[in-house]
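My hope is that you will study the record closing this message with an eye to the fold:
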Amino acid sequence: MHGKNRLYPRANTAWFRNWFFPIYEQYGKVKVLNRFFELLAAHFPKRQGANGISTYARRMNMGEFIHFWSGASGVNLSIRAQMAFGDKDRSGSNWWPQFEQAKTIFPKLPIKPMQHTELLFLNRYNPK
């Protein structure tokens, strides 16, 4: 995955270089990876399988993915996501409304408010 670009959510997306590696390096390495999965286990909807094993009830959308990684890192990663992925998800839908909805559905994730410069970027590249 390191040397290859993907076609989703847009052509030439470099998942490792532009998303996973910077988060890993800047927000605690293995700890941030563990926090992501701990937050999923604690907050994302689950169901009991027929064999008694708990599984996630549905697939996560792009906005939820960004929100849970934001919770794992402790900061709002929407700007990094905008730069890494653009503003569309795999099916071509704008993920910003999904991200806003995820913040409402999963409000207990530990995310610091955006700084002024981040808000300026957000307003410039995501006009309402």
